[in-house]
Amino acid sequence: MSGQEWWKRAVIYQIYPRSFQDADGDGIGDLAGIAQRLDYLSWLGVDAIWISPFYTSPMKDFGYDIQDYRDVDPIFGTLADFDALAARARALGLKLILDFVPNHTSDRHPWFLESRQSPASAKRDWYIWRDPAADGGPPTNWLAEFGGSAWEYDEASGQYYYHAFLKEQPDLNWRNPEVRAAMYDAMRFWLERGVDGFRVDVMWHLIKDDQFRDNPPNPARPPNAGPANALIPLYTADRPEVHDIVREMRAVVDAYPERVLIGEIWLPTDRLVTYYGHDLRGAHLPFNFQLIGAAWDAGVIKEIVGDYEKALPRGGWPNWVMGNHDKGRIASRLGPRQARLAMLLLLTLRGTPTLYYGDEIAMRDVPIPPDRVCDPYEKNVPGLGLGRDPQRTPMQWEDAPQAGFTRASRSWLPIAADASTVNVAAQRAAPASMLTLVHRLIALRKAEAALTIGDYGALDAPERVVMFLRRVPGRRLLIALNLGESAQSLSLPGDSRQATTLLSTDPERPLGDLAPAFTLGGGEGIVVLLADRETAPPSPAA
Ligand code: GLC
Ligand code: MG
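Above: inputs. Below: predicted complex with magnesium ion.
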């Protein structure tokens, strides 16, 4: 039976370590701070935490530029702090997933310093060095995600090196077997320390074209997309050879029992699912971001879910992500009422959900004054709304100075203006809060096998309503979400006579018996237990 592996039943919670809890009073979150807050996560009911990078780093991209894969940056603490955090997590039954960033290192990494020294360096080929084009310019037209050419000229050697992100994040050359071996060793370092898996950063970027062909122009450049979208990344990402690497990474992870390999992959569904790999020997969970950028429209959502379910390879386990440190927050995208529906959807669809810290209390994007901007994306490409600081602000714990995040007088990013009311302490005590809803949803997911390992079946529904079934033998749950603002009349599927409302996003709705014809309020979502005709208990009259 499927569903034995822990990560199939798990709810994953993403922590951005700079912003979760500051223990040492420097205004920046740290590992000791996370350890202090694990009891909260245990109460919330999540099963696993994924922590964004905390390795030694010059912090040009806030930890996604790694200088030492085997140590903790002093800002975040020490390896001893990590071990203490891991031990505490283990004691609480929480799995621990690390962020692994294999595509690029920091330009301060000893490997790159050595590589840069001269074209004759033993590590030259660990990175991607090329001679200039005939006109002396960059070797190809490839663009960096954070703006400008992806090639940086090195005066000393007269060559360019490639960087898909910042120039301080040179790409490793994954065609070099020594690079592969060194990176797999770095993974083993953490596996030996007991981590339960990795979220692999930009997995689909790892290999670039060996013929260095120019990328074609993008005729359908989406509005408000980053500057790199001017080209189609045909030769810089999602190359066929990437799957060999993913397979090797999987083998590294599989040498240890019960570990999970997750890939960050921004691709359309048909390409995304190829990352499960031939014979499912690739990523266990290629992150599915299809709902993050999607219009909040019932037809669109139904199509996304249906296409994804259809595209999954046999035995491939689904997953859903609705928010992360790179995208605007759900509550800002959708508004307070629909954000509750988003949580219902995330936690009732078939597949492992990943919840971004703060979304469980409906934190919103925080406006960042110009003098407080930290994100290099915003600094390089200002004013387009691409900056990621707004969704990375400190967790709002309580109505206290700095929302209880730090004892410092100032946090690295501003605290939300509404933190005195939108915070964990206030919402834990409030039956109608987002936190209470998310807590209940997670508990329901745990109690109902249909919600974790059950089948998914779409149901026809009026415009603006998403309706589906989750089902294990003998138990069927109906989930209905009204994305519209006005109430909708609905009826239970034809073969069910009796139904019980288990949960509603509307705190006013009474739980319990639900009539076969019922009304769903504007912006309301419900989870209903259906008593099937064949399994319904005999009625007293019979
Ligand atoms: C991933 C990370 C993002 C980072 C980039 C470069 O997309 O999620 O935060 O800036 O990779 O490492
Ligand atoms: Mg700190």
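The domain at 9-106+177-442 is CATH 3.20.20.80 (TIM Barrel).
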